[in-house]
Amino acid sequence: MTFLSRNIISTILVVVCCSALAAHAKDHAELKDSAWRHGQIDLPQGRFMWKMGLQRVEIADDSGRCVFAAEDLDQDSLALSCGHAADLGFTAFFVRTEPHTGLRRLKLISSRQGPMDHILYPANIFSPVLATDHGKVVFAVTENFEIVAWELETGRLIWKKVFETPVVFPELTRIQGHEALQFFRFQNGRYRRYHFFTGPTLPPEIICDPVTKSPEPKTLVPDTTGPDPNRILAFGDSITYGYVNKTPAPDLGYVPRLTDLLHPEYMDIVLINAGNPGETTLRAMDRYDWVLSNSNAAYLLFHQGINDTIHPGTIPVSTTLFNISTIMRRALELDMQPVLSTIIPRDPSHWSGTGIYRTRAKAIREGILLLAADMSLPAIDFWTMFENYPLNNGGYLSLMSDYVHPSEKGYQLMAEHWHQTLLDIPPGTPDDLSVTAATPWRITVTWQPRPEFDMADYIVLYGNSAQNLDNQVVVTRPQTTLLRPPFQTGLQRERWVQVFARDRYGNTGAGSAITRISFPLSATSAKEVTNQKEIPIVKRMPLKRDDKADALR
User: Fold this and answer.
1) Class assignment of domain 124-216?
2) What pTM was estimated for this model as a whole?
3) Which residue has the higher pLDDT, 281 or 157?
4) Mind listing the pLDDT tens digit for each residue in 437-495?
5) Fold (topology level) of 434-534
6) What φ, ψ does residue 291 adopt, rounded to 5°?
7) What's the gap between Cα 62 and its chain centre?
8) Does the chain have fewer CB atoms within 10 Å around its N or its C terminus?
9) Which pairing describes strands 337-341 and 379-380: parallel, antiparallel, or unpaired?
10) Is 76 helix (H, G, I), strand (E, B) or coil?
């Protein structure tokens, strides 16, 4: 059999995969009925005809001469595998998952040797690369943050290294005349380039050389004022930036629509659009720290991950979720309030026929919701909202302008839910309670004011014990004054105090530490403040705005 060059065959196969599998979604039963699909592709080298059945693909030149054929393959493997062919140094390969073994069966077609025997390899690999300096060894990364190496002909695992953070994008380069495996490893807040030498040291030992640093990120500008409660940062990809019908339209996206919803009541609110079209969470790691640190925003609206779904060979789902969790942790370190959201589903007619992308998208959506629950963050499930949109209102397709980006109606729906979620977030905890004693009968309790843009007032509970905070006062400023009649003695000189913040919509946040304070023996006596760690905390239901105050101000 005569074979074309590796690049030509790989190009044809990729086009075949895209044409046959993505043009129109049909299941295996339909393929069995129709038996074959047909098509043609024009390349600089000439015109080629292809046809594909359920377990066979054939490519012929313009004269009808067969230049490529592969059997015993399945459709679910074809689109996924074609992209890796050049990385492995072969024309193409096709895989079939072995039942109950967790392994996949690999079939290689070499432009020099023709079809080769099947071998087995691990099922959870990404971005395989072939090293040839010392035998034929395949390296790959897995979902479990590890690099594995196995012999190509036998499928025998010969080496594995496990990392605590993701590793991605393995490729081969040459250092000092030897093949080196180059990859990126997450360390110190971003992905950095590393090398493993593979040449004469393999097997059994692989040596790691010093880090080759990636370009340093932009210099961070120190923020000495803290987050501004009137600034909201929207971070994401083209859906955050605003695209309609595959065209940039930032004025039609959810960011300006959310601004319009907030401004009637909060004219000082500023929304920052940090959407970067086409960005994956992997690329977002190059800029997230600089963007968050320099935004001076008190709120983070996060919507990203849909672009990760179309990179099954290079971005494992576990890496996507790790990246998102890293951005959330950094936001919390900066005293920002993150709001997570799930990705929206693509138009089903434009998913790969293999279902791989949709499966990955569902896993990312589920992972985001679990992450939000684990970190106690508010989350919006846009996936379910879009997919289950009522048919009598137009259904899912009415919310989409193309197969990825929402329509104006879809963006409006997103804006409305961002708006409601922001208003439903309760205020944070009042911190730093302190006491000022003017006289033996009068003390003033103060605390740090809450910065939320919709703050209303503070509810102060106090009593003669930590278990009996049965008095209440509502104030609009972060301070209140407590009195002790002169005839009180003994334990009645003490008060236990707890403060809650409440917004304009009745949402009450977590209370401050229950603090014990003592009235002084004289105006110059030292104040006493006891931290809640020494006093049991009594949980109470959120308080309502119309509760009456029964204490002296």
Assistant:
1) mainly beta
2) 0.73
3) 281
4) 767 778 788 999 998 999 999 999 988 888 889 888 999 999 888 876 655 555 567 78
5) Immunoglobulin-like (2.60.40)
6) -65, -50
7) 47
8) N
9) parallel
10) helix
